[in-house]
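Quick log. Single chain, no ligands specified.
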Amino acid sequence: MKLQPYLDRMGIHYQMLRHDTTYSAQGLARAEHISGHRVIKPVLVQADGQFVLCAVPASSRVDLDELQRQLGVTEMKLADEQAMARVFEDCELGAEPPIGAIFGLPTVMDDSLTKQDNVTFQAGSHVEAITMAMADYRRIAQPGIAHFAKMMM
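-> predicted structure:
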């Protein structure tokens, strides 16, 4: 997966950002001097054995019980690092873009992100990020929308 060629093929207008090395979505928010509410953090889960890519604000975490209820599945767990390395083999671990379609996965986005005009997320490495309009993100990610994020303390 190469994110930029994918975005270009899809006709998406975006801005490529380079920043100091960051290992978290909140770190990306700090590096780019933007709110953690505008940075999308991808979280890979297994729902009834199937991978699902979750998109939540950097300032939040996934409420697995609520996500399980919203998706109507019987088993829900976070994917481990080995699974993430297999699924996102072209990305640095922890720097995956939150666009499941690139990886053949469904995406579900927390409804709190819909309030944002623009969003930012890692571009597959710990030193590159993408900023784009939320409308474009929704067009390419085609996420299901649910309410499953909780603010971190």
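The longest helix spans residues 25-32.
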